[in-house]
């Protein structure tokens, strides 16, 4: 379609070159647990396609959150804003960056479907039903999140609901389902995989919350306390609100979403006992997931056990 | 998924309740020309699915252009900005509106694929290949457009290239191809439909350019001269740049994208002969499309003739 479009295609390809590739890994794990062969190339396009979905979600997320960085590099809208400014082009640099981010996210979202269907397996239609659910659920979760951010406070229960849609189903449950469905899994195994995925996915997101406050910027690629500066109403913040006293709640109300209060809020999350409480939740959810893995039996412990550890004990 | 999500789903449904439904009409026309039965319900989901794609493109387009209105109502980002402000919610109202618009566009884009595949025809995989092309091409066209807007001037040839991807292929060619492929069309008919679609689609977009400057706001649902106020570098503007004198070019350079110069620019487009030139282009493209329709023969004149008129002689 011409060299003018290289800039867009290159940005798409380089964006998905990084990342943890958790969703493809869970898709592949579902495939293996349901009896798919590890060396069958047909699973590769479907599993890899989920990185386009994740790329789309991240590019649009960074735009909505106004995040400056992603994986230690400028976010897409910031990168194209800089190219516009440095190239002394006509018009508004920030607007140009935002437009490119909207379009790049749309492109990646379209490519997810296209690549997923390239897995030439007779089971693709059954697996696509889970991809469809996944795509609707992740937007629904993000919408609940965006609406939740407009409330003065968010209860732990409400924050956990966002986590369920935005992370647990999207990152773990549906990718497992897609892989399993591609290998021809029946309803029983699909349900058993949900029993693993939901606690595991919730633990995954709680770990993300913790890393968003206490993570090492050199490892996470995000500035320390970024979630607090952006004012995200995470489960960790909701738990702090629940456990702290009136002075703590006043600090939360005033400091969340500002750059100045990051250190004080980090301290509050620790001293209120919220960090410990969330770590206890993670441990409990991990144990639930482990028990569900054991109930599936077969290759499940070998396949899903290591992935569960990566999801919940990671440092980035 | 709970009542909190009704607001998002309702916005999606009410958005696609309006509109000209040109893409479904072209998809249905392709189906008929290729021998599909008019009363076969299997074509309906695929044709209707294209309204989700169009809804997604419009919601994201309005966001990128900062448009306040769509079809005489507030654009989605403005509507949700107002709801946030009127509901006295926490945080930035404009940011909330923008986030909802990003998410709603993503949701509609996902629903396009899902609904298209609900047409339970054995030809769906062949038709999906054209949907995939369509989705990539429309983003590519929008990217070329966004990049084109950052140049001091855009030649008629460059502006026509944007039109080809963003409008001719997206609005006419690929919908015709999808419908024809669903009815089992071979490569010959697909190529013949391109011969109709590209001139017709270009004429369609040129009509849009003219309506964006000279259209009746009561009929178009957009304020008069909106394209000029937004500074769009359309073919009509490129043609004016080409035909006018130095004084006219100075007026274009200074006035395009401002509210004050709308009347003067409207006048310039008329007096420079650009409007006449574009009307002549539309007539020539219409004649090309008509000749291509006649070459297909069969039911093509009856099916495509009226649609060609709607696309190029409309007033909204």
Describe this structure in words.
Two copies of one chain form a homodimer. With 316 residues, chain A is mainly α. Helices cover 74% and strands 1% of the residues of chain A. Chain A has a two-stranded antiparallel ribbon. In chain A, strand 1 (69-70) and strand 2 form a beta hairpin. In chain A, helix 2 packs antiparallel against helix 15, helix 7 (156-182) runs antiparallel to helix 11 (235-243) and helix 11 crosses helix 14. The radius of gyration of chain A is 20 Å and the shape is flat. The model of chain A has no long low-confidence stretch (mean pLDDT 93). Chains A and B meet through helix 3, helix 5 and helix 6 of A and helix 3, helix 5 and helix 6 of B.
CATH superfamily of chain A: Farnesyl Diphosphate Synthase
Count of helix runs of chain A: 15
Mean pLDDT of chain A: 93
- CATH class group of chain A: Mainly Alpha
Q: What is the subunit organization of this protein? A: homodimer
The percent range for strand residues of chain A is under 5%
Low-confidence stretches of chain A: none
In whole angstroms, the N-to-C terminal distance of chain A is 38 Å
Greatest interface by residues involved: A-B, 53 and 53 residues
* Proportion in helices of chain A: over 70%
Shape of chain A: flat
InterPro entries (chains A, B): Isoprenoid_synthase_dom_sf, Polyprenyl_synt, Polyprenyl_synt_CS
Keywords (chains A, B): Magnesium, Metal-binding, Transferase
GO molecular function, one term (chains A, B): prenyltransferase activity
Protein name (chains A, B): Polyprenyl synthetase family protein
């Amino acid at each position: 379609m011409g060299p003018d479009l290289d800039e867009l295609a290159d940005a798409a390809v380089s964006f998905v070159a990084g990342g943890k590739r958790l969703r493809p890994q869970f898709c592949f794990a579902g495939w293996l647990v349901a009896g798919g062969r590890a060396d069958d190339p047909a699973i590769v396009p479907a599993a890899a396609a989920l990185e386009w979905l994740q790329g789309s979600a991240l590019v649009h997320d960074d735009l909505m959150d106004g995040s400056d960085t992603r994986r230690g590099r400028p976010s897409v809208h910031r990168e194209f804003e800089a190219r516009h400014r440095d190239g002394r082009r006509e018009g508004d640099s920030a607007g140009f960056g935002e437009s490119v981010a909207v379009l790049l996210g749309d492109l990646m979202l379209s490519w997810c479907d296209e690549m997923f269907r390239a897995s030439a397996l007779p089971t693709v239609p059954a697996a696509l039903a889970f991809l469809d659910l996944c795509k609707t659920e992740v937007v629904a979760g993000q919408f609940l999140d965006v609406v939740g951010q407009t409330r003065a406070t968010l209860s732990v229960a409400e924050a956990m609901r966002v986590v369920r849609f935005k992370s647990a189903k999207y990152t773990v449950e549906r990718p497992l389902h897609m892989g399993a469905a591609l290998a021809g899994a029946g309803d029983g195994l699909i349900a058993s995989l949900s029993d693993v995925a939901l606690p595991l996915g919730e633990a995954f997101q709680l770990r993300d919350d913790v890393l968003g406050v206490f993570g090492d910027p050199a490892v996470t690629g995000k500035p320390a306390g970024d979630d607090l500066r952006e004012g995200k109403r995470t489960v960790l913040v909701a738990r702090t609100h629940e456990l702290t006293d009136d002075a703590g709640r006043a600090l939360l109300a005033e400091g969340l979403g500002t750059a100045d209060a990051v250190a004080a809020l980090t301290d509050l999350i620790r001293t209120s006992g919220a960090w410990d409480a969330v770590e206890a939740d993670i441990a409990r959810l991990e144990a639930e997931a482990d028990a569900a893995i054991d109930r599936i039996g077969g290759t499940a412990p070998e396949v899903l056990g290591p992935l569960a550890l990566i999801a919940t004990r990671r440092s980035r």
